[in-house]
Design goal:
alpha/beta, Rossmann fold, two-stranded parallel sheet, 14 helices, binds NADP nicotinamide-adenine-dinucleotide phosphate
Length: about 290
């Protein structure tokens, strides 16, 4: 079967490409640079060179597909890019779409990103295409935002106090996406809230990171200003910084993202990866050069 991937070089999508390749597929993945094309090849996929800004590229990407992963990063072009891709599928293959969204996407979401995903989901519903929606909770890989402090100062600095969060590994999200893409008929009409299987805190994350890195790493409750500056320095678009600050300093700090769920293991029939698994697998991120 033909599977096309949009966002296959990102945090979740790269694992979707790798997982599909491991399961015997050769997914066709959009790549907007030669480096991205090589990354797709290294993951076991087939690169399709071009940008989401080029409608003809996207038409060719999806024209022969049976299933399409729809995922783009948060940014000012997200609605235009994702709605354009939906239109391209509707005009060509009419493939089943697996869309990566967020929990609580709604017109009146307090988060801009929740409104953005809601707009895209409305467009998807209106297209009449078969589709499913995957809503990952807080990803363990979000630690990438603060790896500089871990490497340079042996500290995990996040504005979350002792707030707990049910974190999920992007690799578990990717496996769910891969299973849905493999079974486009069964996937149609489904909606999956993928909250992590264990509640963790900054202190317990730091303990796991210490084991993974082989040296003590301490948790520090940082200020919102400091966290915002770190986000900007790591390339997060300015428009997304406010949302992320509220997510950490209000929502996670006050425990609103706690409440573990077995949704992913129930779908994949595999145990959920723990934060210890994550820290061990990503020890390179925390190692000093
Ligand atoms: N992080 C979380 O905790 C979380 C939780 C739930 C849901 N989500 C949602 O998941 C999505 C983000 O997933 P992610 O973290 O995997 O994203 P990501 O790492 O930012 O990846 C974005 C992907 O989109 C591609 N892309 C962006 N603009 C493009 C263009 N003009 N042409 C071609 N490709 C383009 C990027 O390609 P390049 O590699 O070339 O940049 C990359 O492959 C967002 O919609 C977010 O709201 C995130």
């Amino acid at each position: 079967m033909n599977i096309s991937i949009i966002g296959g070089t990102g945090t979740i999508g790269s694992h979707v490409v790798r997982t599909l390749a491991e399961r015997g597929h050769a997914p066709l993945a959009l790549a907007r640079s030669e480096a991205a094309a090589q990354a797709v090849r290294d993951l076991g996929g087939v690169p399709h060179t071009g940008s989401l800004d080029d409608p003809e590229t996207i038409r060719h990407l999806v024209a022969e597909a049976h299933a399409v992963l729809l995922l783009t990063g948060n940014g000012p072009d997200q609605v235009r890019h994702e709605c354009g891709a939906i239109d391209a599928v509707a005009a060509t293959s009419k493939a089943t779409i697996v869309k990566v969204s967020v929990p609580g996407a709604a017109a009146d979401s307090p988060f801009e990103i929740g409104k953005v995903h809601h707009t895209i989901e409305e467009h998807l519903r209106a297209s009449g295409l078969d589709h499913s929606v995957v809503r990952p909770g807080w990803l363990m890989q979000n630690i990438a935002l603060v790896t500089g402090g871990i490497r340079d100062r042996d500290e995990l600095a996040l504005p979350i106090g002792e707030g707990a969060v049910a974190a999920i590994d992007a690799r578990d999200v990717a496996l769910v996406c891969a299973l849905l893409l493999e079974d486009p008929t069964g996937a149609a009409g489904t909606d999956h809230m993928l909250i992590g299987a264990a509640d963790i805190t900054g202190t317990s994350m730091a303990a796991a990171l210490s084991s993974g890195a082989g040296r003590p790493i301490a948790f520090r409750d940082s200020t919102l200003d400091e966290f915002s500056a770190t986000l900007l320095a790591s390339g997060v678009p300015e428009a997304a910084v406010g949302d992320l600050g509220m997510l950490y300093d209000v929502i996670i700090r006050h425990g609103f993202l706690a409440g573990a769920s077995n949704a992913a293991p129930d779908l994949t029939a595999q145990p959920a990866r723990t934060f210890e698994d994550f820290a061990t697998a990503h020890r390179d991120w925390f190692t000093r050069s």
